[in-house]
Amino acid sequence: MNKGISSIPINLRVYSPHVLNLTLIDLPGITKVPVGDQPPDIEYQIREMIMQFITRENCLILAVTPANTDLANSDALKLAKEVDPQGLRTIGVITKLDLMDEGTDARDVLENKLLPLRRGYVGVVNRSQKDIDGKKDIKSAMLAERKFFLSHPAYRHIADRMGTPHLQKVLNQQLTNHIRDTLPNFRNKLQGQLLSIEHEVEAYKNFKPEDPTRKTKALLQMVQQFAVDFEKRIEGSGDQVDTLELSGGAKINRIFHERFPFEIVKMEFNEKELRREISYAIKNIHGIRTGLFTPDMAFEAIVKKQIVKLKGPSLKSVDLVIQELINTVKKCTKKLANFPRLCEETERIVANHIREREGKTKDQVLLLIDIQVSYINTNHEDFIGFANAQQRSSQVHKKTTIGNQVIRKGWLTISNIGIMKGGSKGYWFVLTAESLSWYKDDEEK
C-alpha cells in the first residue's frame, strides 16, 4: 500500500446548507518514523510541504492538537510558532478532551493561559472510531459534544465558546476579519503588479519582430534578465524580497545547515559495536605481543572508517542542491513564457550545464573526504597526545621544570605475563614528559 505523500492537492468541494463558505487546506501530520514504502526523509518532506503553506502571511493557521498529549510537544504549535512567533495568525484547536486521564483537564489551555494565542483556542469532541463503526451521525455527535461541555465541571463555564458549531463561527468570523485586515496590502500588491505589467507592455509597443537587430537586442535583454533573476534567487537580494516562500539560495542554505546535519545524525552509530571494533583493531595490531599503549594504527583504522561514512550524506546533499538549482532555473524561465522555444532551450542548456558540473562536484567532494582519510593529524589541539599534553602542561606550570611535569597518572592492570604470580595485577602509573614510573599503590612509594 502506498503510504507516501504528494504535493499535488486533492480538491474537494462540499455543498450543504449546514456548512460555511470556507477554504481549508488539510496538511499531513508529521511522521517521525517511515513506515511501509515511505522514503527515509519522509519527516523532512512533510515539513517542507507544510512550510510552503504556513509561511504565507495571508494564511491563517489552524493548529490541531490532541488534549491527551503534552501541549508543549505539539508539532502543530511548534511549526506555527516558527512562522508566527507572536501567535497572530494561529488558531488553536484542542481535540479528544473526552479521552484525557481522569482528574486532568485542559482548562488552562482553553482559557488561553498556558500558551497564549491572539485568536485563542477552541475545544471540540469528535466521533470516535467506535461511533463511526456504529453509524453515529453528525447531528447526534454534536448533541453529545454539547452535553459533554455543559456537564463537565472544568468546561461548563466556557461551554458557549466550545464545540464544533462555535468553531465554525470562529473560523468564519476570523476569516472575514483577516480578509479585511489584509485586503489593503493585497490591493497595493496587485496595483504594483499591474503597473509593472503596464510598463512591460509599454516597452513592446514599438517592437518589430521582423527586425533582426531588435530580435538580437530583445534576446540579449531576456537572457540577461534571466541571469539577474537567477543570481538574486541564489545569492539573495535586498530589493523585492519574496515573503511567500523560500528562495533557491535559502533552500540550499537549509540543505547545508539543516538537512546535511540531519542526514549525519541519521547514520547508524552503535557504541557497543564501535567498542568491539576498537578492541579487535588493537588486538590485531599487537598480534602475539602484549602491548602497553594503544597503537596509533588502531585509532586511525577506526577513525578512517567513520570518515568514509560521510560520503553518503555528502553525495545526497549534492543531489538535493542540484535539484534545487534546476528548480530555480525553472522558476526564472517563467518570464520567458511568451517565447516557448526560447524558454525551453534556455532551461535545457542551463540544466545540462548544471548536470555536467554535478559529476565534477561529487568527484571533488569524494576527493576532499579521501584527503581527510589519507592522513589523520593527531598533532592537533583536538587530540591530547604526548606533544600536546606537554605543551599544555608547560603553559599551566611555567615555573616547573619539564622533567617534573605529570602528564597522566592512574591505575593500569597488566595481564597475561607469565612471570607474574597470580596472573594480572594492578599498578599505579605516573607518566611525565621524560619518564614512566609505576608503584604498588597511589601513594607512589
TrEMBL record:
Enzyme Commission number, as recorded: 3.6.5.5
All residue ranges annotated as the PH domain in the record: 405-445
Gene Ontology annotations of biological process type: endocytosis
Dynamin-type G domain: residues covered: 1-184
GO MF terms, alphabetically ordered: GTP binding; GTPase activity
Alphabetically ordered keywords of this record: Endocytosis, GTP-binding, Hydrolase, Microtubule, Motor protein, Nucleotide-binding
GO CC, one annotated term: microtubule
Organism: Pan troglodytes
InterPro entries: Dynamin, Dynamin_GTPase, Dynamin_N, Dynamin_stalk, G_DYNAMIN_dom, P-loop_NTPase, PH-like_dom_sf, PH_domain
Enzyme class of the recorded protein, top EC level: hydrolase
Keyword GTP-binding included in the entry's annotation: yes
UniProt protein name: dynamin GTPase
Record-linked CDD domains: DLP_1
